[in-house]
Amino acid sequence: MSDPSSLKFIDCNAFIGRPTVRSHWQPASAADLVCEMDRAGIARTLVWHIAQHDASPLLGNDLLCEAIAPHRHRLIPCWSILPAQTGELGDLDAWFERVGAAGVKVFRAWPARGRYLLRRETIGNILAMMIERRIPLIYTLTNEADWRDLYDLLRDFPDLRVILNYTSCWSADRYFRPIVEAYSHVCVEISAYFPPGGIESFVKTYGPWHMLFGTGFPTAYHGAMMLMVAHADIPFEAKQAIASGNIERLLKEVQL
Fold first, then answer.
1. What CATH number should be reported for the domain holding residue 111?
2. What backbone phi and psi angles, to 5 degrees, belong to 48?
3. What is the pLDDT of residues 148-179, one digit of tens each?
4. Domain count of the chain?
5. How many CB atoms lie within 10 A of CB 63?
6. How far apart are alpha carbons 221 and 227 in whole angstroms?
7. Surface-to-core class of residue 241, CB atoms within 10 Å of its CB (0-12 exposed, 13-18 middle, 19+ buried)
8. Average pLDDT rounded to a whole number, residues 124-132
9. Which pTM value belongs to this model?
């Protein structure tokens, strides 16, 4: 049996920056994040900026790239998207060129905060370009999003690569397992996935290829989910796929 301590971890869910409203968690800078990654033993992190959610998606994108510039070998930026109709993105081909130049490999969407609907009519042109370039979309399931919206989105864009994020600390398997069965490019990020034996049951049914390690830092410590993966009753190869192998594959497939 391989030693769990030899696992390589890539965190698919962490953010930096200070929220507009004081929260119970301690805000983290890019340097803080890297320091905690070193302490926990995490190789790299997909990171976003809280301003993408709390203030302006595009301002948050710029703040993110500025903040992580000294740590680009460890931190992978996630940009937020908006509908093109209001002209904020400018020419989409040129915008995607900036995406590539910034080293962005994954997008996020905050439709409720941005006052738009994540639908074919509003953002279908961007989603089509994402599919062509194999760019994943992190879809956050909170009070701002609805499972019905996700089902509708995937019905219209079945080839879209989607990473489900914050699926709920209460088991959401009855929501996401049908999606995983129906759409081969859907993965579940596990930072809020706590049902006892949940990882084992999911891997037994679907294999490890649709599950990604994430922590939710700084709202949660790195170690909890690292232990969940390291001590899951699954083969070491499955643990490594969840810990980093699956996201490394997705990132390598991006064409920018």
1. 3.20.20.140
2. -130, 170
3. 999 999 999 999 999 998 766 667 899 999 99
4. 1
5. 18
6. 11
7. buried
8. 96
9. 0.94
Assigned token pair, 192: 């809020």
Q: Is 80 helix (H, G, I), strand (E, B) or coil?
A: strand
Over residues 194-233, the pLDDT tens digits come to 888 999 999 999 999 999 999 999 999 999 999 999 999 9
| Structure-block tokens of residue 197 | 């034996």
Cα distance between residue 49 and residue 17, in whole Å: 6
What is the Rg, in whole angstroms, of the alpha carbon atoms belonging to the chain?
A: 17
**CA atoms within 13 A of residue 35's CA, in its CB half-sphere:** 7
Strands 211-212, 186-189: parallel, antiparallel or unpaired by DSSP?
parallel
Residue with tokens 């509003």: 122
Q: CB atoms < 10 A from the CB of 230, how many?
A: 17
User: Angle at the Cα of 108 (from 178 to 35), degrees rounded to 5?
Assistant: 110
How confident is the model over 18-45, as pLDDT tens digits?
Answer: 988 887 888 899 999 999 999 999 999 9
Cβ(35)–Cβ(42) under 8 Å?
no
Whole domain around residue 109: which residue ranges?
4-253
Facing residues of 247 across strands? none
Residues shown for the chain = 256
- By DSSP bridging, strand 10-16 and strand 162-165 are unpaired
> Tens digits of per-residue pLDDT, 89-118?
999 999 999 999 999 999 999 888 888 999
* Structure tokens belonging to residue 210: 């649709």
| CB-neighbour burial class of residue 223 (10 A; exposed 0-12, middle 13-18, buried 19+) | middle
